[in-house]
Design a protein that fits this description.
Number of strands: 2
Helix content: 55-70%
Mean pLDDT: 86
Radius of gyration: 20 Å
Strand order of the largest sheet: 1-2
Number of domains: 1
Number of helices: 6
Order of helices and strands: EEHHHHHH
Strand content: under 5%
Amino acid sequence: MTVPTQAGTQDQSDLGWSWRTLYGRALEWLVFVLMIVLFVEVTLGIVFRAMGQSLSWYDEVASIFLAWLTFYGSALASFKRAHIGCPELIDSFQPGLRRWMAIFSQLLVVGFFGLMAYVGFQIMPILTTDFMTSLPDVPMSLVQSVIPISACLILISEFDELFRLVLGRPCQTLSGH
């Protein structure tokens, strides 16, 4: 089925369920689940501490879930094009140069997250011998896997935006479907 998008172009998808929609929904659910898990974990920590039975792993696990929420939330922000940027700087250029500056800027973002993913994956084997302090059965490689995984998730959105810029299409957010 052909579904018109907000920009007036045609999107070949079944009832608007393109890979972008599915990807965006998956990121939203991931962030939502992490928020719920963090809320439950913190609530349990408070309840047990109030009962005088502090959980030994509470603080360390809460900080890890907060970091995971931050990294995966960044992937969602990248998908929605809601991350920190300098659109005013790009918009200050003449129309002909504006597109090329946007592409250059996008290439810098892709390069940064590509490097972050590469280094993150290079560090993973080094962390296999380190374990969490309060939960010694949980390897730090699992804890720190959020760095290269979220970088790859961000790269998916950033490459999509780069292709849109190269093809001269406007940016599309989740609400644009």
